[in-house]
Amino acid sequence: MAMKKTQLERLNAARLQDSLRKSAPPDRYAQGARTLSRREQRERDRAQGLVPFAVKLPGALVKRVQERAGDKPLNEVVAELLERGLGD
After folding, report:
1. Which secondary-structure segment (H or E) carries 73?
2. CB atoms near residue 34 (< 10 Å)
3. I need a labelling partner for 84 at 20 to 30 A (CA). Which of 33, 34, 59, 74 fits?
4. How far apart, in whole angstroms, are the C-alpha atoms of residue 17 and residue 10?
5. Cα 30 to chain center, whole Å?
6. pLDDT tens for residues 25-62?
7. Cα separation of 63 and 65, whole Å?
8. What mean pLDDT comes out for the span 14-30?
9. Exposure string (b/e) for 1-11, b if CB count within 10 Å is 16 or more?
10. Please, what is the angle between helix 74-86 and helix 59-69, to 10°?
11. What share of the chain is helix, strand, coil (3-state, %, to 5)?
12. 51 near 44, Cβ under 8 Å?
């Protein structure tokens, strides 16, 4: 079955994109960075004594916490605020 011209062009574009992606250096766009699987991340968190704790907060409060966090990880900022609030 003959392909339509548009289908042929899409296929050629996909081939070109794939070849460009494969030829990119491994460290480009963090391609060389290793990401942890969910299981590995849970094991790492458990080893650090971290426990998942889900809460529902008002949107305005979440924005304030995010602004306070800036570049710091949100988990650390929330833990610090809870420690201060509980007075431990």
Report:
1. none
2. 6
3. 59
4. 10
5. 12
6. 666 666 556 777 889 989 988 999 988 889 999 999 99
7. 5
8. 76
9. eeeeeeeeeee
10. 110
11. 65, 0, 35
12. no
Q: Which of 79, 83, 80, 78 is nearest to 65 (CA)?
A: 78
- Residue 49 phi/psi, 5-degree rounding, is 80, 15
Q: What number of CA atoms fall less than 13 Å from residue 14's CA on the CB side?
A: 6
Q: Which amino acid is at 74?
A: L
Q: How many CB atoms lie within 10 A of CB 56?
A: 5
pTM of the model: 0.52
Among candidate residues 56, 59, 52, the one with its CA nearest the CA of residue 79: 52
Placement of tokens 């942890």 in the chain: 36
User: In this predicted model, what pLDDT tens digit does every residue of 62-73 receive, in sequence order?
Assistant: 999 999 999 999
Q: Are 65 and 78 contacting, i.e. CB atoms less than 8 angstroms apart?
A: yes
